[in-house]
Amino acid sequence: MSNSIPRILLVEDNPNDVELTMAAFEANNLANEVFVVHDGELALDYLYRRGDYRLRTEGNPALILLDIKMPKVDGIEVLRIIKSDSALKSIPVVMLTSSREEQDLLETYSHGVNGYVVKPVDFQEFFDSVKQLGLFWAVINEAPPGSIGRE
Predict the structure, then answer these.
(1) What number of CA atoms fall less than 13 Å from residue 80's CA on the CB side?
(2) Which of 149, 144, 117, 121 is nearest to 133 (CA)?
(3) Where are the alpha helices (DSSP H) in the chain?
(4) What are phi and psi of 110, to 5 degrees?
(5) Which band of pLDDT confidence, cut at 50, 70 and 90, is reported for residue 40?
(6) Nearest partner of 85 among 117, 111, 56, judged by Cα
(7) Nearest to 6 by CA among 142, 117, 128
(8) Are 75 and 69 in contact (CB under 8 A)?
(9) Between the CA of residue 37 and those of 40, 128, 145, what are the distances in Å?
(10) What angle do CA 51, 37, 130 make, to 5 degrees?
(11) In angstroms, what is the C-alpha Rg of the chain?
(12) If you placed Cys at 97, which of 36, 68, 124, 129 could pair as Cys (CB 3.0 to 4.6 Å)?
């Protein structure tokens, strides 16, 4: 049986940013299942269905929201691995980060990122940014074939 609600993988180590992102999705009635991991290593475990995630439902997320500065494996390395893997490279990846460093921006685009959103410091700006991300990537944007989870 196919799960018709696209899954979003949120890779974020800051609990406040996770809470704000989830609140923005909920306030805008985005019905996506959002799965949260707190570092790059766990994101890769989730995507490759290994470790604690070896028994998770098959299928890739419809979207990955990825922070850059994280423990264990940083977001740029996670992005590089995703975009160099034929089974994962079609998953849209949006960097959702506080980094305003031009080098980070250039490096993520060189690895094939689909979008780059700088987390605003202001709550309302952050809320509005996540709302727009959710509306575009989760509702309007067509998910790549095979990205919807199977049960």
Answers:
(1) 10
(2) 117
(3) 15-27, 40-47, 75-83, 102-110, 123-133
(4) -65, -25
(5) very high
(6) 111
(7) 142
(8) yes
(9) 8, 22, 24
(10) 155
(11) 14
(12) 68
- Helices 15-27, 123-133: inter-axial angle, 10-degree rounding: 60
Q: Give residue-wise pLDDT tens across range 64-102.
A: 999 998 889 999 999 999 999 999 999 999 888 877 788
Question: Quick one: 54 exposed, middle or buried, by C-beta within 10 A (0-12, 13-18, 19+)?
Answer: exposed
Domains of the chain: 7-140 (3.40.50.2300)
Give the whole-number percent of the chain exceeding pLDDT 90.
42
What are residue 6's DSSP bridge partners?
A: none
Q: Record the tokens describing residue 27, joined without a space.
A: 């306030």
Residue type present at position 65: L
Rounded distance between C-alpha atoms, residue 33 and residue 111, angstroms: 26
Amino acid at 37: V
Q: Quick one: which of 79, 118, 84, 78 has its CA closest to 98?
A: 118
Indicate if the alpha-carbon torsion angle 97, 71, 63, 91 is positive or negative.
positive
SS3 111: coil
- Other C-beta atoms closer than 10 Å to the C-beta of 133 total 21
